[in-house]
Amino acid sequence: MLLPLLRKEIKELLMERSILVGAIIIPLIVFPIIGALTGLGMSAAMERAEVGLVIGIADLDKTWLTSTHLLELFREKGIRTIEVKCSSEDECARAAAGKELNAVIMIPSGFTRNFTFGIQSTIMTIYPIRSAAISEISMNQRISTLLLDIFKSLAERVHGGGIDPRFFEKPILENSMILYLGRILRAPASAVAATFLTTLFGLPLVAVMVASYASTVSATSIALEKESKTLELLLTIPARRITILLSKLLGTFVIVLLSTISFLVGFGIYGMMIAGSMMARIPVEEVAAGQQVSLTLIDLWPSPIFLPILVSAIFIAMVMMTCIGLLVGVLGSDVRSAQQLVGAITFPLLMPPFFILVFAPLESLPIGVRIGLLLDPFTHLFLAIQSGFAGNLTSAITSIMVMLGFAALLLLLSSWLFMGERLITARITLGRRRTSGA
Amino acid sequence: MKAIVASGLVKRFGSLEVLKGVSFEVDESEIFGLIGPNGAGKTTTLRILATILRPDAGDAIIMGHSVRNEPDSVRKSIAYLPEDAGVYRHITGLEFLSFMAGVHGRDRECVKEGVEIAGLGDALRKPMGSYSKGMRRRIILAAILMLRPRVAILDEPTSGLDVVHAVHIRKRIRRFVEESGATAIVSSHNMLEIEYLCDRVAFISGGKIIAEGRPDELKAEHRAQNLEEVFAKLVEAV
Q: Which of A124-128, B138-142, B233-237 has the lowest mean pLDDT?
């Protein structure tokens, strides 16, 4: 009994071209492209950073070991070192920010004595985070691994074959700090990464979900009027079409606003839970090494302009998506086709910039890909969020203005489609052509 | 003044010419029937009169306003019952009547009249999604007639309804015109219904008006028992 029914269902659904295209073909094409571009961008960013890696060294020990052998090992790894004169965390952090360094290492006084006796020393490191891309965190973790390798080589050079394996395994204890948008956060990169990811990945994800939801709601709003055949009645009331359009837009906004609040509250709880659980997993020795304090979202809250930029960007994205939804709703013949069509249109618009920009900065991408992304209105949503995150007001405003331009264009297009008889006669179905009946 | 003057209406959908120069006139306080088979052009004609579609050529003047140039003014004089019009599933019949009164700037008295015309009793407080087809038709017709439009455009008002609901609706349309002095244009492929309801009729076929007149005159002219016979003879002649 079930088998023939199931066969019929699968055949019916797969023969529906909108499902085939929207749910199967587009993801098969889009995700590999996104993966390739993201990988390309991340590799380019990492390679570029590794090639020109510059590390500041604040040497408070100043011995034959630190000023000769250690620097030699850095050079062998292709890392340029710069001497930094600082004796406190704040001074070193300022030096890291001012000289565009990838990291600053503070070698404490007495390091050489401990090291030659095979006693583990604590090295303080400061990693500046300047942009909102995951490649930045990956780079910090890469530097941390490189440092451990260098100090292992140093241990081998000093102790030769008679080295204690436990000392060789971990000759130094890294007490890392993050210079996060000008603020020092006393936490290892792994802890910051967890909370940082919820901000970096999560907030754009909320934007994507809100925007997608707006397009679905507005497309459904029009398609439902068509499908339930209430549209013609609505169009003959003594109201201007623009008033009807406005009521549709505002109605969608109210629903999406409620949904956004719901998303943000849910996401906030999720973020706190993830950050809490990740903090609990930080190795004990890392915590013991340097008076680590637990991080909260408040510690990691970015620049003061972030919230207004985030809210504005999400709101404009919502307007754009609502207009796209209305356009699709007008062109769709019924609710199902409108919803499938809206998915097929919004998915390729939202997903590539989201996935690519979360992992790799725009400037690390090839020029052709960069131009392609900039022509996508939703790229500017993520650029605005990232610029707002880093406190780059000019870039954030530029992205917001571009989004406003796209939104105005889409609004004009929606108004045009709402005028005259297009609302009744326009039809697009994936794979089928329909004509209006007499 | 004529309530409706349609002259040379032409409408194309792509390469398909649905209306090929439709012209007719309707007097005030008259019920005018537009009869024809499916696909003849009835709905397209009424959609043009309701300002939903724009004619490719020709024009229609409704209560002195052009559908082509003054659709906003036309909409103030008309109310339109679309063929197979649906309902908002989640709002009650009463809320729907209030909504229609509100968007037309009418008061609560208008809603009371709508309640009386619909004759749906307690069902008016239920969501319209639970209504039968006949009940849906009655609530929409009530929403239209309570507005007392100067011209009511009714596309297949009883299509697909059972006898009880169809009779109720026909009686309501007649009573509305008699009491308000308004004009109604009704389309149907049910020629017996049109014969009962209309003062004058026009036969439409293939996007053209092929005959027009009072039902009695047409029957006499074509020596027919009813309008169906008249239409059959007209089609044969064409």
A: B233-237
Which residue among A233, A420, A438 places its CB closest to the CB of B82?
Answer: A233
Find the closest chain A residue to B106 by CA distance: A238
At residue A343's C-alpha, the angle toward residues A323 and A228, to 5°, is 70
pLDDT greater than 50 at residue A212 = yes
What value, to the nearest 5°, has the Cα angle with vertex B30 and ends B24 and B32? 45
Task: Verify whether the Cβ–Cβ distance A238 to B103 is below 8 Å.
Answer: yes
Could you tell me which residues come within 8 angstroms of residue A358 by beta carbon, excluding any fewer than 6 positions away?
A: A133, A134, A200, A201, A204, A382
Where do we find the tokens 């919004």? A346
- In which domain, by residue range, is B54 found? 2-84+150-237
Residue of B76, B82, B104 with shortest CB distance to A229: B82
Q: What tens digit of pLDDT does each residue of A68-111 get?
A: 899 999 998 888 888 888 878 788 887 777 777 888 899 998 89
Asked if residues B81 and B157 have their Cβ atoms less than 8 Å apart, the reply is yes
Say which residues have a Cβ less than 8 Å from residue B55's Cβ, sequence separation at least 6.
B9, B10, B11, B19, B48, B67, B68
A424 chain-B contacts, CB cut-off 8 A: 47, 52-53
The alpha carbon dihedral of B83, B86, B92, B98 has a sign of: negative
Residue bearing the bigger pLDDT, A309 or A297: A309
pLDDT at residue A277, rounded to an integer: 59
Measured CA to CA, the distance from residue B61 to residue B45 in angstroms comes to: 13
Token digits of residue A338: 């409108």
Nearest to B88 among A230, A236, A438 (CB): A230
- Chain B: nearest CA to A437, how far in angstroms? 7
Q: What is the CATH number of the domain that holds B8?
A: 3.40.50.300
Asked whether residue B132 is assigned to any structural domain, the reply reads: no
Q: Mind listing the pLDDT tens digit for each residue in A215-260? A: 888 888 888 888 888 888 888 888 888 888 888 888 888 888 887 7
A435:B16 CB<8 A = yes
Quick check: ipTM above 0.95?
no
For residue B92, the model assigns a pLDDT of 92
User: Which segments within B16-94 are labelled E, that is strand?
Assistant: 16-26, 31-35, 57-62, 65-66, 78-81
Whether B224 is in a domain gets the answer: yes
pLDDT of B45 reads 96
| 3-class state of residue B224 by DSSP | coil
Tell me whether residue B220 is in a domain: yes
Q: How many domains does chain B have?
A: 1
Burial of B45 (0-12, 13-18, 19+ CB in 10 A): buried
Does the distance separating the beta carbons of A436 and B41 come in below 8 Å?
no
**Residue A95, pLDDT score:** 78
Q: Supply A245's token pair.
A: 């359009």
Residues in chain A within 8 Å Cβ distance of B207: 438
Q: Closest to A240 (Cβ–Cβ): which among B72, B85, B87?
A: B72
User: What is the H or E stretch that residue A345 is in?
Assistant: helix A335-359
In a domain, B120, yes or no: no
Average pLDDT over residues A296-306: 66
**For residue B46, with 0-12 CB atoms within 10 Å meaning exposed, 13-18 middle and 19 or more buried, which class applies?**
buried
